[in-house]
Amino acid sequence: FKEASLTSGTTTPDTLRNNGQFRWRKDGISHAWNPETITTLQRATRTGDYAMFKKYSGLVDEKEKKIFIRDFLGFRKNPISIDEVEPVENIVKHFVAGAMSFGALSKEAHEAICLAMNKLGARSNTGEGGEDSERFHSSVDGISLSSKTKQVASGRFGVTTEYLVNAEEIQIKVAQGAKPGEGGQLPGFKVNEVIAKTRHSIPGISLISPPPHHDIYSIEDLAQLIFDLKNVNPSASVSVKLVAESGVGTIAAGVAKAKADVIVISGAEGGTGASPASSMRFAGISPEIGLSETQQTLVRNGLRGNVRLQVDGQIKTGRDVVLMALLGAEEFGFGTAALIVLGCVMMRKCNMNTCPMGVATQNPELRKHFMGRYEYLVNYFTFIAQEVREYLSEMGFKSLDDIVGRTDLIEVSIEESVNNDTQLDFGRLLHKEDGALHFTGDIHKPSVPLGMQNTIIDEQMIAAGVVDCEGSVNLDYTISNTDRAVGSMLSGAIARKYGAAGLPTDTVNVKFKGSAGQSFGAFLVHGVNFKLEGETNDYFAKGLSGGRIAILPPTRANVAAEDNIIAGNTGLYGATSGELYINGKVGERFGVRNSGAIAVIEGAGDHCCEYMTGGRVVVLGETGRNFAAGMSGGVAYVWDKNHTFDYFCNMDMVEIDLVEDSASRKELQELIRKHYLYTGSKLARAMLDDWQHYVDDFIRVIPIEYKSVLQEEQMKKLRKKIADVQRDY
User: Which contacts (CB < 8 Å, 24+ apart) does range 550-554 have?
Assistant: First the structure.
């Protein structure tokens, strides 16, 4: 298309004028973040000047052209003395930092946000990239470097048992406001050694999150994940992050019934740093609409008192906080604003690793430009809280909690002379349901009562003293499908005491007989070995963190193990380390996002090894379709006896070849030997006995990017070896 009206100068009839749709331009469309608001905010927070901050909030709140729904809203006033209003120290505890990952942000920016929120007694969020374990017990100026909220996203990057037990809140990110239904992606050039270590990958490999959580396909699945997480860390609350969209209220009601403690409504305006251009301005809806629908639905169904509501999406001033509180929110997330305080100038280079301010880059030279300090953020949130306090005084309320859900206090401000504003109807947005308008429970009490029938096995194992044992312990239990998340509570207790190292090898050896429930061996830590004689339901070995699991048919089963499904769907999802051996077939979506575990199975359904970034998977049998889709790391070996595997493999990111080099053959043989050792597999025994015959039918699956990185590493080692020889010579 050609621009109809062209500006004078260098623009030609064949050129489209840049109207600043994604970045501010002098003659472009209006942006809430523009040079004036950015520089004024940075000046105010760096100098600690509240008068300058009020100038900034005036620019934001009284802008000439309305951009957001909240720009049409005001509130009734009935002033009281500000001395009667709760102090700033209480108000700031309602604030949270947005979920921005270490990897997307530089180390300096990520840690500055964490320090500021911990200083204030508020909460920062790790984002979906995990957190360096060294931060869990480190501090700066006496302030903890550990983020209080640890996020569990679809990619499960860095989600280990140690990570979970060091959280005060665990957030399940179902979707992101700016790009609902899309997974995140960290380009390989932003994955340095520290980030690779944190995410259990290798440097230079692109890391892709699946669009959905592969263990959440229903509200019941979500309830299971919440149950799993609360078993690992009983003292943590669990929040679920949703996107503002039509119908979000119905979803939120299901989330509340699934026993979440916090529901986050993320607006389309937030989280745009590295979102696709096609989604940035065209996906999701305003947080005001999503928040209002959620509030009304929860109140109408008697669920509002069970959960806290959090909202984010371009919240910048105290006025924004007050209006969101009136619509139903108790907590308020700040993402972009926090980055701007730390130096961001909205260059929109977040995904290119070229951020000139050192905020969203891993380039060591550019990171030197980072001038942010956590004290600036402390100033910002203190100013916001002070402004909220002033508004509460004007409205006649003593605390922020008193105005939550009070839409009857909102006044609509529409200028009749402006465009079609008079046609806007805010009636449904501001409708007020009868019932509890805010959270009425105990925020420190997990919603799931522990110690019930489905966790009794873990309690028995802990009572047996296995956490503190000095030698090896052998235990036997009968298990049924009502026994869910077996091993997760035990693993949490071990990780809390010993960290990622867990227990010494083969310390706890537990044998089970029967049909295990969902999430068998989830988050199992090093030193704990499970052997199940029977079968298991979905989500087995989820988040495996160093433990070893062996599953085999009952001794008296008169069936060919390799021809029968013995384990359900979504096994080994998000595993970071450990071993899994299964004498039988597994269901669909096995090994999704495996980033370091070793597994040997005897057949799999569709989508095996999706988005895998590390580890080894051996399949001694047939696979379903879409094998290795999105796989960017690790290696898989498949026994292709029918020579049809190329039809079932997704070749977009991987290449397949025969297992010809001696190192790969030796590795494969050793994995099959271990499989036989732990399961007694007849198929494995046959392969080992006639190795030269069977090995020729194996296919190796290796990601193209991963292979090139390994080759580069080998070349570096070779050059170093040659240089050492030449030096010695």
Answer: 550/580, 550/581, 550/582, 550/583, 550/678, 550/679, 551/580, 551/581, 551/582, 551/583, 551/584, 551/679, 552/582, 552/583, 552/584, 552/679, 552/680, 552/681, 553/583, 553/584, 554/513
Cβ burial of 509 (10 Å; 0-12, 13-18, 19+) is: middle
The pLDDT tens digits of the residues spanning 583-636 come to: 999 999 999 999 999 999 999 999 999 999 999 999 999 999 999 999 999 999
Please report which confidence band the pLDDT of residue 14 belongs to, taking 50, 70 and 90 as the band edges.
low
- Asked if residue 198 lies in contact with residue 129, where contact means CB atoms within 8 angstroms, the answer is yes
Using DSSP's 3-state secondary structure scheme, residue 63 falls into coil
Tokens (6 digits) for 682: 């007849």
In this prediction, residue 359 has a pLDDT band, given cuts at 50, 70 and 90, of very high
Residue 262, pLDDT above cutoff 90: yes
Name the amino acid, one letter, at 715: M
Mean pLDDT of 10-39: 76
**SS3 per-residue string spanning 166-198:** CCCEEEEECCCCCCCCCCCEECHHHCCHHHHHH
User: pLDDT at residue 181 above 60?
Assistant: yes
Nearest partner of 516 among 503, 530, 505, 498, judged by Cα:
530
CB-count exposure of residue 716 (10 Å: 0-12, 13-18, 19+): exposed
User: DSSP readout, 388-427?
Assistant: HHHHHHHHT-SSGGGGTT-GGGEEE---TTSTTGGG---T
Which residues share a beta bridge with 509? 474, 529
- pLDDT tens per residue across span 275-296: 777 777 777 789 999 999 999 9
Which residues, at least 6 apart from 395, have a Cβ–Cβ distance to it below 8 Å?
75, 76, 77, 78, 79, 322, 403, 409
Residue whose C-alpha is closest to residue 521's, from 562, 495, 564, 550: 550
What confidence score (pLDDT) does residue 588 get? 97
Strand pairing class (613-619; 185-186): unpaired
In a 3-state reduction of DSSP, which class is residue 577? strand
C-beta separation of 59 from 34 below 8 A: no
Whether pLDDT at 453 is above 80: no
- C-beta of residue 244 within 8 angstroms of C-beta of residue 266: yes
Nearest partner of 637 among 599, 684, 682, 607, judged by Cα: 599
Residue 28 confidence (pLDDT) above 90: no
* Full set of structural domains in the chain with CATH: 35-345+375-423 (3.20.20.70), 454-717 (2.160.20.60)
Give the C-alpha separation, 298 to 311, whole Å: 15
Average pLDDT over all residues of the chain: 91
168, with CB counted inside 10 A (0-12, 13-18, 19+), is middle
**Nearest 5 degrees, angle CA 388-CA 394-CA 400?**
40
Contact 159, 152 (CB under 8 A): yes
Token pair in block for residue 77: 């006033």
pLDDT above 80 (res 83):
yes
Residue whose pair of structure tokens reads 């030997």 in the numeric block: 673
Question: What span, in angstroms and rounded, lies between the C-alpha atoms of 713 and 473?
Answer: 42
Q: Which helix (H) or strand (E) holds 462?
A: helix 456-463
Question: Which are the contacts of 479, defined by CB distance < 8 A and separation ≥ 6?
Answer: 457, 486, 512, 513, 514, 515, 516, 517, 520, 532, 534
CB atoms within 10 A of CB 621: 18
Q: Is the pLDDT of residue 274 over 80?
A: no
User: Is residue 728 pLDDT above 80, yes or no?
Assistant: no
Helices (H) and strands (E) in the chain, counts: 21, 23
Residue 361's nearest CA partner among 632, 110, 706, 38 is: 110
pLDDT class for 419, splitting at 50, 70, 90?
Answer: low
Closest to 551 in 3D by CA, of 383, 403, 675: 675
User: Tokens at residue 432, please?
Assistant: 């007020």
